[in-house]
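Folding Task

Wanted — backbone structure
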Amino acid sequence: MNVLIVDDVDQIRKFIKTVLQNIEEVKEIYEASTPMECINIVSSHSPDTVFLDIDLDGKTSGLDVARTILAFSPAIQIVFITAHSQYAHSAFDLDVTDYLVKPFDDERLLRALLKVKKRAKQKAPLKIPVKIGANISFLDYKNILFFEKVGKKVLIHTYNEILETYDTLNNLSKLLPDTFIRAHQSYIINIEKVRGLIPNNAVSYTVQFDQSEKTALLVRSKYRELCDLLYRT
């Protein structure tokens, strides 16, 4: 889980960051103090969750920032943070995950994070849209073993076929649930299908899949992340 904290008060950002740093599922934490910084980070880093202050700079409402975020990244979860409870109705009209009224303690923050994790599971897609040739195909992600970048193409490996798309691994990763990880610069793998690993050298492993002879690559720096995810799955 990658999280963006948006608040113009340094102490609030520091408090939230300190709590989140102790959460195993939180991998990356970004910070912003202005609406423009927020939009730029969302655009460049695609966080899963945004903790967003409604009263940012006295000029731009966090509600408007949330509308902008959701317009081009509707899967992002937003948790509003504010000193004013009167915005709650407008906030939940945007289908946000939670609404924290300052001051709040770490226990309340953790409850909000539990809501985020629960909702993420509920929002897992049944199928993902992928452009195959001139058509858009809706693929059941549960049938996908891995994605492989070959030149300008990405090969989508299932048990029975290999599909080709000119989409990028970065774009595809944004469509996938957290049962997929970027295992290598050229591979995204479905961890639910992983059968085992064969060490290649000091840099990588060969990934084996259930009921298939197909293989992918995993860089050794991703080994711990894979083990942690498999343990929780």
Summary: The CA atoms of residues 51 and 79 lie 5 Å apart. The mean pLDDT is 88.
